[in-house]
Amino acid sequence: MKHKTSKIEGMTCSACASRIERVVGKIDGVKTATVNFAAEMLNVTYDETKIDEAKITAVVEKAGFKLKKQTKQYTFKIEGMTCSACASRIERIVNKINGIEEVTVNFASEKLNVTVNEGVTNIGQIKAAVSKAGFNLISEEEKEEEVKKYREDQLLFYRFIISVGFTVPLLIISMGHMMGMPLPHMINPMMNPMNFAIVQLILTFPVIAVGYKFYKVGYKNLFQLSPNMDSLIAIGTSAAFIYSLYGMIQIANGDASYAMHLYFESAATILALITLGKYLEARSKGRTSEAIKKLMGLAPKTATVIRNGNEQIIPIEEVLVGDIVIVKPGEKLPVDGEIIEGSTAIDEAMITGESIPVEKTVGSNVIGASINKTGFIKYKATKVGKDTALAQIIKLVEEAQGTKAPIAKMADVIAAYFVPTVISLAVIAAIFWLVMGETPVFALTIFIAVLVIACPCALGLATPTAIMVGTGRGAEEGVLIKGGEALETTYKIDTIVFDKTGTLTEGKPKVTDIIVAKENTRAYQAEDILLLAASSEKGSEHPLGEAIVKAAEEKGLVLKELENFVVIPGHGIEVIIEGKNVLLGNKKLMVEKNIAITELEETSNRLAAEGKTPMYIAMGSQLLGIVAVADTLKASSQEAIQTLHDMGIKVAMITGDNKRTAQAIAKQVGIDIVLAEVLPEDKANEVKRLQDEGKKVAMVGDGINDAPALARADIGIAIGSGTDVAIESADIVLMRSDLKDVPTAIKLSKATIRNIKQNLFWAFGYNVLGIPVAMGVLHLFGGPLLNPMIAAAAMSLSSVSVLTNALRLRNFKA
Question: Are residues 256 and 321 in the same domain?
């Protein structure tokens, strides 16, 4: 199965989004198809053996929309061409690169114009291919999608200004005299009704002309039996305009009374207000993706690399894997890599959230967009372009923003049937009032008002905008939520299972206690016992042994040479140091070797009850003392668990440790449920058992052995410092590796779902109340009619209010 995300052009409301989902979903081989109206993105999962991208594109275009690849256009200056054959050769070379949409080389101007599918290739690959052929490319310009988006917003604004410029005088002429405003004699409806009508027609025509897209798209969808919001606007304003033309014909035939029944101003005002709503909507939708822009802005624009023995400053897009990159103090790292020369401290807060700079030396891995604080370094680029850690985070957030929450499906179903229902209601209401004896003008007013007020845009925007802002805000807080479904499920979580090692604890055992036996006749002190224990464990690969060796090294102790080393499985080790027999292990080992441990047995039990692993050490037949090792708790563990308890969430811990040790750790941090002595392969079964009890379970882990449990849980939460497998299996990734971000993720989920419900309430409520009023229900009881112009203003405000409410999520505080 292949997953593809594409930009869609031509959508005007959620009915369009629903239609695209339906037509793409019907294609044989398509597993899932979801459209995000707010992000204007199509997400398709399909079987490559049955269909290809061309088929999907063709189906979408047949439905009246455009599927746009994520392409960019570049222009380069070419150095090294000597004849037109060189130009032809460069064209052939570049054309062979997978992901090239179009390429032309102009020999006279020495320029290469290329359109690149960025999801497949990048500029660095093009430059490398051309360079291999003996030519050199120099960047000249880059046509950004952002520029196009800005121009589209500006175009909407200009359309609105033009519409208002003609609509305001039209309103003054058509309605001013009703409020006592004098009109010139030549256009006074009482004296010159035809002039009065002609001037209104002249002022209305430019407004209709700049709003031509409403008619082009609206009628096209209507004729294809898939009406959308534009169809409602097109029918309503066309009805007003055509009826006004009919009125002009009646005036020409001598019936001057029709001068009072012209609807030109309604058509123009509706178009002007809808255009204003569209402009405000476009601006608000642009703000929902600011998190992506912030992430993209973290990376530097250029990089200093060594090529052919010389330092060169090149655009970041041109850095290739294997390039040697130079970074001076204070500069940002352009791409991911491995240090080959120098040492420094690097601020990785943008990825990890850790404010303290991390010391880096030769062999250390570094992350693109992090900041070099102190030293001069050279490093080899290992990941560039879309493979860098930052690019992967951006991709994850973009995919999350393009997904749909289950709660959105209800709105989608309603939106799909909404527009045809509204058209039917408008016709029924108009006929009803005609039958009730009202005039055609009255019925037309009702017809237009119903069509105009019932825009489904607010319904379509309610969910995706909240998800976009919520997941974006999460990314800024270091919480990467992989989609709308994960976001919605998270707020229902009532039980969280933490893996112990590496999640609740540091995952690196440390020596916590050294106890000296009172009957130690050799006068060994704590440091002597540590040295002896570390020397004994020098050849061991056991984590506890490594912890003891590390503790000795930190104290600067010089380890003694071993003369013999024997592992006694399940007991400990026996070694010979400087001709003396040394034992290091548990109670079983001491009993087996007839070492008296009565003096320290109670101490050993106490240490075990505290979650530590006590190891007896003896020389010959005499007990020297105890070395205790423990995997210490992370500083944030207790605070995170307390916050979860305050939120009413049960907390469980899963570990392979024995019950006594597990209970001791659980007591320290306030764990509710202890799942001890669990084998790695059984972790998923323990999660399932909790689910079978009716609990909504989240699993928090970091290792490869946590992956099945992360996938099994209702929500898998991976620690960002964990393995790639764990991160891939999870629904949420905590980039800062801080457990306090677990409650943050849940709080963000709750805030987002609450926001979605508010949006849906207002969107549904608006239509439930607005349509009956537009149909004239109030008028039946002596109340007022809803003017179509007021309906247009209300419709525009509904979409803007939903977007504004969604943008409040940007103020979410962790």
Answer: no
Residue keyed to tokens 């239609």:
19
* Residue range 724-740, pLDDT digits in tens: 655 666 788 888 778 88
Residues with Cβ within 8 Å of 64's Cβ and at least 6 positions away in sequence, in order, are 10, 217, 220, 221, 224
CA dist list (Å): 460 to 39, 197, 279, 526, 681: 11, 39, 17, 70, 44
* Mean local confidence (pLDDT), 94-122: 78
Average pLDDT value for residue range 500-517? 84
Confidence of residue 650 (pLDDT cuts 50, 70, 90): very high
Number of helices (H), then strands (E), in the chain? 28, 30
Whole-number Cα distances in Å, 142 to 8, 73, 77, 138, 387:
22, 6, 12, 12, 21
Min mean pLDDT across 135-149, 298-312, 750-764 is at 135-149
Instruction: Report d(CA 340, CA 361) in Å as an integer.
Output: 8
The two three-digit tokens of residue 106, written as one number: 């102009």
Report, as an integer, the average pLDDT of 264-280: 78
Q: Domain range holding 413?
A: 388-479+747-814
Tell me the pLDDT band of 435, cut-offs 50, 70 and 90.
very high
Whether 170 and 247 map to the same domain: the answer is: yes
Rounded Cα distance between 323 and 26, Å, is: 47
Strands 613-619 and 377-383: unpaired
Query: What is the distance of C-alpha 597 from the center of its chain?
Result: 59
Each residue's pLDDT tens digit, 456-494: 666 666 777 788 788 888 888 888 887 778 888 898 999
Number of domains in the chain: 6
Cβ atoms of residues 215 and 238 within 8 Å: yes
Q: Which pair of structure tokens corresponds to residue 485?
A: 């479904």
Give the model confidence (pLDDT) of 225-241 as tens digits: 777 667 777 887 888 88
Collect all residues with Cβ–Cβ distance below 8 Å to 254 and sequence separation of at least 6: none
Supply angle C-alpha 225, 228, 233, rounded to 5.
115
Q: How far apart are the first and last CA of the chain?
A: 37
Beta strands 732-734; 715-719: pairing state: parallel
Same domain membership, residue 276 and residue 151: yes
Q: State the pLDDT at residue 771.
A: 85
DSSP state of 559: P
Rounded to whole angstroms, how far apart are CA atoms 120 and 465?
28
Residues noted as catalytic: 499
**pTM for the whole thing?**
0.63
- Please check whether residues 452 and 501 belong to one and the same domain: no
The H-or-E segment that residue 803 falls in is: helix 788-807
With CA atoms as reference, report the closest residue to 698 among 684, 680, 717, 685.
717
